[in-house]
Write a structure and sequence with these properties.
Elements: H1 3-11, H2 14-17, H3 28-31, E1 35-38, E2 41-45, E3 52-57, E4 62-63, H4 65-79, E5 88-92, E6 105-110, E7 117-123, H5 132-142, E8 146-150, E9 155-159, E10 168-169, H6 180-185, H7 199-209, H8 218-236, H9 251-268, H10 283-293, H11 303-313, H12 315-318, H13 329-339, E11 347-349, H14 356-367, H15 375-385, E12 386-390, H16 393-406, E13 412-415, H17 429-438, E14 463-468, E15 475-476, H18 479-482, E16 499-500, H19 501-512, E17 513-524, H20 526-529, H21 534-543, E18 544-551, E19 565-572, E20 586-589, H22 625-638
Helix pairs in contact: 8-9, 8-16, 9-10, 11-16, 13-14, 13-22
Length: about 650
């Protein structure tokens, strides 16, 4: 077998062996020579010791991924950091006083005297979830100022100016001719930042190191740092300009610099934070966070990476306590493609959550109708044609951040209750901003007034396209609010005692689009097939043409919920257009959700078992929604639906 084939077996998940981002351009199969020394037993020669190491036993199907990571680190320390072999040791016993630790330190780098420990490195396999406590114990036992925990995909560098107990983090380790102070003082530019990273993993490290015991809301504090970093990256402009979002050797200086960036971010993007709001982390805790965050690039980052991090930080949403769920991005892509928004159309999501529908609709228009247009023109489209509304403060912050990362700094995303526009009145700046920017989209009743006869002024709008996944949980019992909705009344016009929230969202969605406008809404499947929901279906036939119904696989929203859902596509009847009684409706059922029964994503693989990546370098989720969207496109063109020509 070849080295590549053995590595695939050792790492079990083929993408891991060739996703060891920590080593950059170093490919394991290019620098490691694995050979069969005994039948079914494969070895490699250690770069430090003159011995052959067993790394794969074919009969027992047992491999040593940590050893592969260690050998790659040895190469990196020698070639990139210029440490001579005589200052490097492997499998160094760790003495804890009365006992010698069972497992020796993987790699130790000594200072020039070749006796005093400078750096201790501990290796883990790429799917390992622990190790920080172990490397901390090694720092204490060896009296080392620097400890590195690496799984080959990313590293955490702990810094403890021995004998002090405070632990910090570093962006990188010093090279052989550098001091630790040199690392702090080295320039940091956009060109130096990592673009391939796992933000969830970074946040978990921060929680373990400082956030769990800092007495602060992790979401709010990390969010402040993300905004400060986004401002710094945006303000830097040229890729070679020095960044300010970085550690200093003194925690207080780091705090002052980051607080200034946060204040600048608040001025650049007003309405996100309170005027007097500041970073609540203590300087020492903040410095640890900056050490981990300063090395990654957020601007123009892969939105799925950022989205997964926010999903992790919002356990209430992840658990569906409010009936909210992060919509899988391949479901969003299907809905956007089927509705095919154009550059002259206005787009809204009245339950925008983290902004997935808005961002993907924006990118769809950019990549299709506006492919040849300038960046400035594309940004102007996003700033004038994209609107979002959500009642929850944290998802609103997330959607604004994601829109910033995607390239739109002027998005219209508001914290409002879509179902009750009467609540939009008030004197606070957020609601006034929403009123002033939404009034231009009104279809009926003209501009905003306070006249009593126009108290329903924010009920009807003229958006062209609406995409949404409203919260399923919760019932509305407010009779004043229910009285605004036809679906809240029975066939005799009597008001029902209560209504499920998502039912009212159907009617609200139709009110938000103009005649001829179209929408996609995620609903529990029962709305479309339960006998007691017949009145809803009759309402829909009267108000809109049913374009399509796509039944989603039961795993689609796992692990958050196993509720069976469908995506309903509608086009509102135009003024003076008579509702058709008989017409074809596109129907499809997804058999491949891209998730397993546990809710974990699974990916497309080639004939050799390697995970396939798309044109952007992202893992390709194995689902059938692209095919469904393509089939609908053919259906829409055959039926001469206006938005597909």
């Amino acid at each position: 077998m070849t080295t590549k084939q053995i590595l695939d077996k050792i790492f079990k998940k083929p993408d891991l062996a060739y996703g060891l981002e920590e080593f950059g351009a170093l490919h394991p199969e290019d620098i490691l020579e694995i050979f069969e020394k005994e039948k079914g037993k494969f070895y490699l020669k250690c770069f430090k010791r003159d011995k052959d190491l067993l790394v794969w036993n074919e009969e027992k199907q047992i491999g040593e991924p940590e050893e592969i990571v260690r050998q790659l680190w040895l190469q990196k320390l020698i070639k990139d950091y210029n440490y001579p072999l005589e200052r490097i040791a492997v499998e160094v016993s760790v003495d804890f006083g009365r006992e010698v630790h069972e497992k020796a330190a993987d790699i130790v780098i000594y200072q020039e005297d070749k006796e005093t420990t400078l750096i201790v490195l501990e290796m883990k396999s790429p799917d390992s979830k622990d190790g920080l406590e172990q490397i901390k114990s090694y720092l204490n036992a060896k009296g080392s100022p620097i400890g590195v925990l690496s799984d080959g995909k990313s590293k955490v560098i702990l810094y403890r100016p021995y004998p002090h107990q405070f632990e910090n983090t570093l962006r990188d380790i010093p090279r052989s001719n550098q001091t630790i102070q040199d690392v702090f003082e080295s320039h940091l530019t956009l060109n130096d930042l990592e673009t391939n990273f796992d933000l969830v993993k970074i946040i978990k490290v921060l929680e373990e190191l400082v956030l769990a015991g800092a007495g602060v809301d992790s979401f709010n504090e990390i969010f402040k740092l993300i905004y400060a970093k986004l401002y710094d990256e945006k303000d830097a402009g040229d890729i070679n300009n020095e960044l300010l979002f970085r550690q200093s050797s003194e925690a207080r200086i780091t705090y002052d610099n980051i607080q200034k960036l946060f204040n600048d971010a608040k001025r650049e993007w007003p309405g996100m934070f309170l005027d007097g709001e500041s970073i609540l982390l203590e300087p020492n805790h903040l410095s640890v966070c900056i050490g981990e965050l300063e090395k990654i690039k957020l601007y123009d980052a892969n939105l799925e990476i950022i989205d997964r991090a926010f999903e992790y930080l919002l356990p209430d949403v992840a658990k569906g306590k409010k009936g909210q769920y992060f919509t899988p991005r391949h479901v969003i892509d299907m809905a956007v493609k089927m509705l095919n928004p154009k550059e002259n159309e206005y787009i809204v999501d009245p339950a925008s959550g983290s902004g997935g529908f808005l961002i993907h609709a924006m990118q769809w228009v950019w990549n299709n109708d506006m492919d040849e247009k300038s960046r400035e023109t594309k940004i102007n489209f996003a700033a004038t044609h994209i609107y979002g509304i959500d009642f929850d403060d944290k998802p609103v912050k997330i959607s604004r951040a994601l829109m910033l990362i995607a390239g739109d700094g002027k998005s219209h995303v508001f914290k409002l209750n879509s179902l009750n526009p009467a609540e939009w009145s008030g004197d606070d700046r957020e609601k006034e901003k929403a009123r002033s920017e939404l009034r231009d989209r009104l279809h009926k009743f003209g501009d905003y007034t306070k006249d009593a006869e126009n108290e329903r002024h924010f009920k009807y709008f003229d958006f062209d396209v609406l995409l949404t996944n409203p919260p399923f949980a919760g019932e509305i019992k407010d009779r004043t609010l229910l009285n605004e909705y036809s679906l809240a009344k029975n066939d005799k016009g009597k008001l029902r005692n209560k209504m499920e929230r998502h039912i009212l969202f159907i009617e609200r969605a139709l009110n938000l689009i103009k005649p001829g406008g179209r929408l996609a809404i995620v609903l529990p499947q029962g709305v479309l097939n339960n006998t007691n929901m017949q009145y809803i279906r009759e309402f829909l036939f009267d108000k809109a043409r049913i374009l399509a119904v796509v039944g989603l696989n039961v795993n689609t929203f796992k692990p958050h919920t196993g509720t069976k859902t469908s995506v309903l596509f509608l086009q509102k009847w135009r003024d003076n257009e008579k509702a058709l009684k008989d017409y074809p409706i596109f129907m499809a059922v997804s058999k491949k959700s891209g998730k397993d029964n546990s809710g974990d994503y699974y990916y497309k693989k080639d004939a050799d078992g390697n995970i396939i990546v798309d044109a952007k370098g992202h893992k390709a989720v194995d689902h059938d929604l692209d095919e469904i969207a393509e089939s609908f496109k053919e259906f829409a063109q055959k039926e001469r639906l206006s938005f597909w020509g």
